[in-house]
Amino acid sequence: ISLPSLFASSAGSIQQTNNDTRILTASASALLEALRSQDLAARGQDVVIELRAGNATPAILNTSSSLVPSPTPLNGGRFRSFDRGTYTIKGNGNVLDLGWRRGATLSFSGSSALVHEDLILTGTCMAWVAINPIKQVGWSMQRGQFFWAVDGGAGTSAASVQRIVTRNTVILVLRPEMLINLYAMLLAEIPFQGLAYARNYIFEVYPAPRAIIREVRMHSFVWESTVSSGTRATNLTLTTSITLPGATVPVSYQDRSLGVPRMCVDDSGTGPEAPPEVFQLNTTLAPFETVDGAPALGAALDMWAGHMAATNLTLVFPQGALLVANASLAQGLLQSAAYATAAAPLLTIDTILHGPFNHIPTLARFVGLDVPGAQPLLTLGPPQAAPSVKPVMYIHKVVLTGLAAAPLPTAPAGSSYRSALPLWAFGRQALTKAAAGDLSEALSGVAGGSTAVGQNGTMQLQMNTVTLVVPASDYKALLAAAVRGPAGWKLTDPAAATAPLWAGVTTFAVAAPQRLVVSAARSLTLSQWVGWGWGGDQVTFMPPYAEPWSGSCADLPDLAAAHLASAACGGADPTLPPAAQSP
User: Fold this and answer.
1) What is the pLDDT of residue 368?
2) Following CA atoms 515, 520, 521, 522 in sequence, which dihedral angle do they give, to the nearest 10 degrees?
3) Of the residues 9, 359, 448, 476, which has the fewest C-beta atoms closer than 10 A?
């Protein structure tokens, strides 16, 4: 097929130079024919195929009626084999409806690649994608299924060569696909060693994607960049609803407003309708939801309840939620059909609470989970079928607010000492034992990062990169411990005012570099904390928003005269020259 003949019956034009060929087309069928062209395969030039709708307004180029049955396949079932040149399909903001078809199989080898740019893709068919072929685990996915299916080429490792490049593109998908992609990326980056069992299962065969996420919303997310087996993308959006050109109401596959997605087949026809189960999240593989408030948190809790009831303990993936906006755990429980009337419902498997990824510092934002009161809102406990299992709550990149103080079991009789640092909202075995006078589990464990205890370890609450908004009295106790330093933070005098608190803590390490000046200390970050049955890495403590810190060392408990004369309290710092001393 010669290039000029491609456009004999369709609106389009060709611009050729010594280095590339630029094809302008308003027809999806012409796009397909261009990719099938013998001339393109023979030239090995860079080719740009631009989709034009004939005017400045983006339009929908629909393949459902324009594609014709495939010609006889060439090259052993492939339409064309490319070993040179870059082939770019540039959408100019137009919507390309693929009509659930995957017809043209292209083979790329050598230095060749296929680029998608400035496209809005709908109608991508669904195909089974094995994430772990060894264990035969996978899911039906739309993201990688284009009607120009790509083969890495003979002798080429698709895992090591990025043959498909996607830039500035939006793909409409079902909600389960969006959630499963987020869940896989969360497991790939979350730092807790206790979750290695799930991470190793998902990424046993194919490596974890290298991804930078720009933004996550309830129904979409944007990859700033991502590299995975055979593909590379920048500014790629997966969304579950979209407003098409000329329309005012968003459409989605979930509500069937765009018809029922179809499965892929190996020719240019359409496959059967996708089975009903693809519209529902496979909670065996990815028991995960996005949350933007109490109703969504209630729905996530209900999903967890169903997952825990149906879970086979020999294959347990942690359940979780990604918070994209502030939420209240107490209000979420009230919105939950399963737990609205339950007192501190039981979580029997590992659970993840995750905030925004914040991969791009200039776009970073923080979301809060309000956990009010000094009574358990949730309880981490073993399932009846496996009483030795100790499920763990993992919290990452979240701000915990509403933490309330309660009497400590280590306080002497008649003492009124209270603290919120045991994190009473998360009921667990360590606190139950501590209430009975046994601190062994409250004091055991390691911090929440690279050396964290595993799935059945003793520390059931683990955190990393979190902020805790604590009562003013606790904040003063923490600042005082930081002033006393590595050798004196843990008080040995049982008569000290804050001794009941430190009796339940084994690790308190201030993050470096952090030159503490108490009068200006609006927050305090620890590199590690272990105490009261929870551990954390990079834990930041703040006083209540309504009571910002404005005091001095004179307001802190349990400081000796030497402490009051230290640099942290405004005294001379022996490590600095006089000109650099605090005023």
Assistant:
1) 97
2) -140
3) 9
Name the token pair of 330. Answer: 């107490």
Rounded to whole angstroms, how far apart are CA atoms 72 and 232? 31
Handedness of CA 561, 563, 565, 569 (dihedral sign): negative
Pairing of strands 393-396, 461-469: parallel
Give the tens place of pLDDT for each residue, 163-191: 788 999 999 999 999 999 999 999 999 99
Cα–Cα–Cα angle for 42, 43, 44, rounded to 5 degrees: 100
Give the integer Cα–Cα distance in Å for 274 and 271: 8
70-74, 268-272, 306-310, 474-478: which has the highest mean pLDDT? 474-478
Q: What is the pLDDT of residue 159?
A: 42
In 3D, which of 85, 112, 114 has the Cα closest to residue 231? Answer: 114
Angle at 149 between CA 65 and CA 12, to 5 degrees: 50
Peptide bond into 513 cis (omega under 30): yes
Q: Check the CA dihedral 475-477-478-480 and report its sign.
A: positive
- Which of the residue ranges 34-43, 195-204, 420-429 has the most confident prediction, judged by mean pLDDT? 420-429
Nearest to 467 by CA among 378, 364, 568: 364
Return the HEC string of 520-564.
HCCCEEEEEEEECCEEEEEEEEECCCCCCCCCCHHHCCCCCHHHH
> Which runs of consecutive H residues, i.e. helices, occur in 203-293?
none
Residue type, 489: W
Tally of CB atoms within 10 A around 349: 22
Contacts of 429 (CB under 8 A, 6+ apart): 380, 381, 390, 441, 460, 533
Per DSSP, the chain holds a count of helices (H) and strands (E) of 12, 33
- Could you tell me the two tokens for 17? 């130079």
